[in-house]
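[audit] Reproducing an earlier prediction to check determinism. Same input, same settings, fresh worker. If the tokens differ from the archived copy the diff job will pick it up downstream; this log only records the rerun itself.
[audit] input (508 residues):
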Amino acid sequence: THCFLRKAGTTTQVYALIDWTATTAADGSITLNTKTSELTLLSSGSSTVTTPQAGETWYIAGITGDGNLNADRTQVDFKYDAAKDDALEAHQARVPLSFGWTPFVVAAASGERAPKITVTFRPQGSLLKVTVNNTTAVNSGQFGVSGPITVTTNALTTDGAFDYTPTSTTVVEGANPTFSFASATAVEETITRNATVSANASKAYVLWGYPRPADHLASGSSFSTVTTIPPYRTYNSTAKTAAVTRTKAYANAIGYPTTVYVERPILPIEYVTARNVNAAETGFVTTDATDDSELGFFNYTDAAAKFTTKEIDGVGYHLPTAGELSAAFGGGPSSSTPLSFTTATTTSFTEPVTINNVSTTKSSIYKIVGDSKTVYGIRLIDTTGAWRTAYRYRFVSDDAAPTNNHLEITARYVGPTFTSIDQVETLSDWTTDAFVVKIPLTGWIGGSNTRSELNTRALLWSATKGSDTATPLAAFFFEAALNKKITPYHGSERVNKFTVRLFKNSVE
């Protein structure tokens, strides 16, 4: 504990560092007892070292919590210190606890103990709790926020220090130190902590700051103690702003609005593998050609048995559910109302999707333009706007080389700022932080082992079974014929053979 001793009626001050031993009582209270009865005194401020004399009245005040003492031993700060703060656990924080000026009389003779005094430590500042929730079940291993979590707030500050500078001969008994602000006006502070959270787990990070003076106060009276950061992508450097929250006051402090900057979520399309499974079931085909001789076709029984879980070159994959396919590709709610590419209109759908193993619905808006070979979409819409993603669908056909025919799906995260399909249609940049999936129109193989609809249609097995026994399985259905459409729930008999597009278990 940094201790400051003031001689009564003077500005004479000395400094001592006191170590304690702790005793915990049955009621949970902690008693601290000094380890030594003889203090080593050092100068404080402009005062020279003055030894207290027998019978004199002095005052003592102190602050603990592993703060940093300044050069002339008059101030203690708790600014971010990498050597100290990075070693803390998520639930730990360096908290300033002080006791106010307490009088005592110096012992009358050498070897005689001074009267025992009791001091009470009180916390100085505000506590901010940030909870990071990793709700991804398929993302095995560790979830990391790219770089540190950055909390920008005018509720807390480390821009200053607790001040024990002697400015008056008068000492107010019981008074705690003042917090000396380095800045005369309100400022935005950035407090950083790194975050690593296991799959399906949460971790709370505790930050500490100090109450602001009257001229630093921010507006607002609604308070919340927790800011939740959803599962966010680790490498995207473009910061998105989460909702403004407020942190609750602690002890004698006041809480003010805070903003947490986080990055965009992991998009469903990012889990899609670049190409279909090969016939040998050892990996993926190496080209996008629809007649690739390595391409694998599987009936449902084989697909479900072989690819419910699949490891290739040490990486985990799985056969996606219909909800996962719908989340990644879109297309409409059912085979009866597919996304049609033939009418130049704007269409809205409520689509069933599965994201992070949670099945829900999100809205989508589509707009068909031009020659019906391009469709724009704004997808994964909900009240938060956190998942909002721009989509572009293009049928690429080559009459001279029809084996190149494919559907190109491009997805780019846009977040809450995009509210209109027109913003997507006029989006000029479809390359920055965009994800492209090509679906070759490979056709399918029926019970007679004859390839049908090569270069005009593609069907992908999902892991979801339908209730209709005649056509018991849901499959994804892409068609480039006159009635161009995408259908997330296309019933098909199990004996038919379709291609398989796996999804990654996790995205690192």
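[audit] rerun output stored. Observation attached for the diff report: The longest strand covers residues 142-153.
[audit] end
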